[in-house]
Structures are given as C-alpha cells and as structure tokens.
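Q: Two folds, back to back.
A: First:
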Amino acid sequence: MDDVEASAQWSPEWRELCRVHGVRACHSTPILSDSGKPVASFVLCLLEPRGPEAWERQIAEFGAYAAGIVLARDRAAAALRESEERHRLLAEQVADGIFVADSKGRYLDANQAGAAMLGYTIEELLKLRIHDVIAPEELPRLPEHLEELSSGGLVVSDWQLQRKDGSRFVGELVARRFPDGRFQGVVRDVTERRKAEEKLREIQERLTLAIEGAGMGTWDVDLRTGASIWSDRHFQMLGYQPTPDGSATVQMWRSRVHNEDLEKVDLAMQRAFSGEAQYVSDHRIIRADTGELRWLSEFGHCILDAQGQATRFIGMSFDNTARNRAEERLRVANQDLEQFAYSASHDLQEPLRSVNIYSELLTARLRGKLDGDTVEYLEYIRAGATRMQALLRDLLAYAQASRREDKAVEPVDANQCFQAAISNLEASLAESGASLSCDLLPTVRVDATHLQQLFQNLIGNAVKYRRPGIAPEVSISAEMQSGRWQFSVRDNGIGIDPQYQNRIFGLFKRLHSQREYSGTGIGLALCSRIVEQYGGRIWVESEPGKGSTFYFTLPA
C-alpha cells in the first residue's frame, strides 16, 4: 500500500497505529508453507508514501523466504517433540524391555519395563554395558551376534540374561544396528514359554517313541487340498518307500485298500467327516511292493471348522495281521471244540440212558436176591449215570449257546421267558416253599431260549443254595442303564464270599461238594456265555449269610 493515509482499505485503528510509528506506506509479501499455502506475511514499512524500490522488494522476498524456513523448522521440531513424546509414552506402556546402546555396548536409553526386567533403575542401567547383563557363559556368542547385526536387518535370538540380584531368565531379543553404530533392541522374558515349549517337545518325543515302539504309523491329511503327510512306518505298512518330507496322497492309500473292504472304509470315513463318530476301521490292504495281503487297524479324528466342515484328518494305523490270523485260528479251534462238545454230549446221552435202564432192570429182576453191598453198588451206578446225564445236558446247552452267534434275534418279552422258566422249576419251587416276586419286565433283543435259560439257572440256584430252615425269597427286576437293560435276581440264600465271586462264572467251578449241594458247575458259566454273546456282562454282589444279587445286562 503506497499511502496509508489515502487508502480506504485500512481501518481507522490501523491508520492510527501506523501514524504513531511514522509509517506512511506498507508492502506485504506472503510467507508460504512447504505445500505452498500462505501461513503469514513479511511486511516492509516505509516512512514516506511511495512504492518499494527493486532492492527493497528483494529484501522483502528474501525475508519472507527465510521466515518460511524458520517456521517450517519450528513446526518440524514441534512435530518431532510430539512424536518422541508419543513413542516415549508407548515405550513406557509396553511390558517388553526397550533398549538403545552405543557402538561400544553402553546403554544410552531404556524404558521402565526393561530396567525393571533386569532389576535396575533406569539411572543404574545407563551406567552399564550390554556385557554386564548377559550370563558369563553366553558372552562368547556376542561377537558373532554383533557381526550378524552389521547387515542392518532385524536379528532374533535367545539369551540367558542376569538380573542385578544374580537371578536369570531367558530373554528373546529382537535387535537391529543403525548406520551410526547404535543398537536398538526389544527384550521379552520368555522363560515360561521356553519351559512350556521344552515340555511339549519332550511330550512329542515320548509320543513319537511310543508310536514307533508300538509299530504304529501316523497320517495327517489336509482335506481342503488333499495333501497328506505320513510317517515312515505308515509308508512301510503299505509297501511304499518313504518320501523325504513325508508327503503322500490319499489315492496312494486308497489304491492299497482291498476292493471288498472299500465300501465299509468309505462309510467309516463319511461318519468321521460328518462329526458323527471317530474313524475306526479294520480292513485288508494289498502291499504295493510285494502284493501281500495284510490287515490294518486304523483310528482317526476329524477337525471341523466353525461351519462344521471337516478340514483335517489325523490318525494312526497298526498292522493287525498277526492278531487277525491268531483270532481266526482261535475261532476255528473254538468251533472244532464246540462241535466236539456238542457231539460228545449228544452222543453219550444214549449209552448213559442204557446204563440207567439196565441197572434199574437188574435191580428189579434180582430184588430180594442181592445182598446189601450189591444193592448199594447198583445205586452208585445209577446215581453216577444220572449225574453224568445232567452234566452232559448242561454241557450240551453250553455248546448250543455258542453255536447261535450268527442267528438273527427279534425282540422278545422277558415276562414270557420268566414264566417259561418258573414252569420248568415248578417242582423245586413247590418243594422248597419258595416265594417269587417279579416287576414288569421289558422287551429285549435276545434269543428267547437264552433268556429263559438265564432266568431258570439263576432262580434255580437261588432255590438250591437256600439257608437251612428258611424258605427262599426271590425277586426279579430290570432297569435301563446306559442304553442297556440291567436285570437283577435277588435272593435270601447262603450268600457268597467276595473272594470267590469271580470264580463262580468259570466252567466246572464249584464252591461246595456234591454232598452239600448237587450240580455240574456249568450253570453260571452258561449264563456268562449267553450274556457275553450279546455284548453284556454278568456279576454278583453278595456277603455270606446275607443272600446274593446277580446282575446281567442285555441289549434293549
């Protein structure tokens, strides 16, 4: 503005201010920021009304330029101070130790957490060097570590660090070296984490040794990509050479499964993939190298994502060939033995009947002509033949129970089987004066003859092993337990010593002599065989003189 007094743009206040200071003209040059925006003005004031000369304009422009530089510097310094304060606050809030050291290893700065981690105050720590907090036996590693840092990149390493009080911890150090030679590092106390990792490593080693010692192979399948990782043992089971990294494919495994077993294997896998059940399969494979048929038992588990989709399939395999062959030999031997027992018990019945009949005829024909000893001998013959017939009948029943494994069974009313059993026991029940009570019994999926035999043997034993002078009392009931029916037959008889309670279910196992209580020692063994045939179990709870309760479970 060439003349302040003549300008209508200036307010009276500004004109008065210029008049007081003798300013007659003003020239303004904008001060620009780094981005080119005006942030202030450099004003050239003249003592007479006129425009600025060229040299005055140059001074004004230089002044504005210099002022812009100063303003930019001040703003940058303020921003730097603000940034440093933010970083300082951040460093003080983190739990990790943050350190800065010079090229000789002397600490230049540290946060409070870092100093406390080492047991020092910040002031104490800044008087130390890196060497002072590293365990002595770790110091030989330091030159190599510093050399590695010279590349300028981040270096991660673990160190045994020593606190002021002499205690130690494992510190994970993330460090870098600046071009000016300074070092910056972040330290985290990972003592507990390293202990946990070591414990996990030991567990993994033991598990690996156990699996290898048991001859098991392991596999891990990514169901999204089909990529598989097998252990060496799993490769060997299938007749393959192990790959260096354990990589394999599902098709390599599938191609080895016996064609006749593929359907059941696929079904087991589908149930596992849906989360319905764990994968369990016993199937045959054909080795890739020799073509030999082998049996594998496999057990697996699927990992499902949040949507319930199977993403990973892990498990183990066991070559079960030896056991399957042994079981097959045992099955054939048992079949032969059962056939022998069935045939022997059946074929010997007729000769024993002849012994009984002819001993009775001989006694009748010679009645009155025989002395006392001879009559007694004939009675011994008849009694022995009768006991042998009973033994063979029970042995035949035992063999028959074993020959019905593949017979399909329909649901049967247990009440009807109970009634059939007590009809067969009618004479002994009446003779002993026994009283029976029976709850309403359920329907079970077993052979009716088998259930009748169970009731008949257990109730018959309750009547037989009664206390002298006390009428037998027998109660029968059933309740659902874990998806199966649990039956109980309770009596008030002589009871059984706990030390003998497992023994009584063995074949020909008796606790009493024939003179005390007659029997063949097969009845409870037959009960056990029947119950086990349906996947159940049988046991007794008893004390001498306090009666017994026999329990057995059957499928619903």
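A: Second:
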Amino acid sequence: MGHYWTYEGVQYSRLGDSETVRNYMGINPSVFYNDGYIQPEQIERVIPARITMNDFLEFTRKLDDVSLERKAAYDLINHLVEEGVNPAAIGITGSMLLKGEVRGFSDFDLVLYGAEAIGKSEKILRSLSAVPNSPLYYRTKEEAKKFYHKYSVLTDLSDEEFADTFPGKVSQGIMIGIPFSIFQVPTAEEVKILSEPKKLNNIQSPEREIFNAILENDSYSKFTYKALYQVKKTENDGKIYNIFCYDRACTEQAQKGETLLIDAEKLDENSYIVYAQAGFIKPLAKKV
C-alpha cells in the first residue's frame, strides 16, 4: 500500500505513472486527464475532493441507472448509518468519489475516522456477514492465499500466516459481489497517540527482538497505515510496551487478551516498531 501497488506481477505508481493514467483513459476517458504528468508549479488552485455521506446517499437515490458498484457502496454505508455509525465518521474515496466508477471493473473504497467508529463498524459488519444469505462476504483462507499472491503483498508473513487472519479482517470484504476496502484512519487526537519516540542514541543499529506478548489494548491496532499494539510480554513484570506497526498485513491481527508472536525493532525501553518486510505481528492463540 502507499505510493506503489502491484497487480498480477506488475507494479504501478499512484502518483507519477502516466502509463497507469493512460490505462484508465482507455476505460473511462471522461474522468481522467489525458496529458501525462502535471508539474506542481502549474497548479494554481487545489480544490479538496469532499463529499458528505448524506450527499452521497441522496445523489445515489436520484440516479435512474445505478451501477452495481455504487449500489454496493450505498448499501454498505446505509447499513452502517442505520445501525448507529456517525455519518461524519464515514468517508468515500477512489473512483466512487469522482463519480467515475467503471461497471464490471471498479471496487469501492471507504474511509472510517477514529477508533470509536472503527470498533462500532467492526461489530456491525461481523453481524451482517453472519446472517443467512448475507450480501456481505469475507474471503475464505484459500481465497486469502490467492489475494496474497495476486497483489504481491509486501510482508514478512508467509501466505499461510497471512491467510490465517485475513478472512477475519472486516476492512477487506465483498458486498453484493463487489470487492471493497475500508481505510481506517485516526482522528487528529489519535494521531498524537500514534507518534512513536525517537530511537535511543545508544541503539546504534537496528536491534530486532522476537517475543511473545498479550494484547492489552487493541483500540489503535486497526488503523490501516500505522497501527499501535499495546502489549505485555509474557515473561516480565507486567510492563506495557508499545508496538508501532507500518505493515498493513499486520494490522487487525488480534483482539484484547490474545497472545501474539512479535518480531520488531527496538526503539527504546518501552517501544518497538514493525515495518513491511522487517518484522511481523501474528496471533498464537485465541482468547478462551
């Protein structure tokens, strides 16, 4: 995730890859710019792309011919709102935001703001996926393995380890046949909590440790791009350690009370950090 993504062995850039833009131009020329890279100094004004959930729902209701992709997003958002998630905590991004979804091609991307909304949504989505003939589906372990290889997931987890937990992550699912991702991001106040300390001066080179720990607080462990696990090592005096995680494959890995195996770089006496392909966080046993 981030600036680059890989699909079936080909790596693309989200920012400056004009070939990626041209590929999209062939699919939907009404939405995408056809002249390659735009120099930043040529931009006179930036207009933020913003849409409220009420605007999105109202606009979609008025459409005469709603794409299946938009219907899937509408149904999922509407269900979250009806079940009590604050619409102000939900965002939409990607092609749907630009009203540029491509029938039969696009997925859809939502944004959830804040640990409270994320936790509430998780319970709602788990309940929805469990009802008979549910429109919401989460991939099986075998499908998760295929996802791992198809998108060349950058992580120290093996395909087997990735597939052990991926089906239980509510941020990656399929709604009425349309794949979706939920980007779970912190509020402004939570960003401060996620600020890791500087590495101690006496730690000259990366010092990796592997240890078992009990997850004491999972409130911040579900954020997409930078998560925080607060844990107690199984062999110590009960001290709480902060594990900062930049590996998306290692977010949403466990719930409070579960045992984790952690491979992380030491930052200071209280903190560790995991990067993509440089460490891991994986559950060992479920809470009884």
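Q: And?
A: The helical segments are 18-27, 53-62, 68-82, 115-130, 141-150, 159-165, 188-193.
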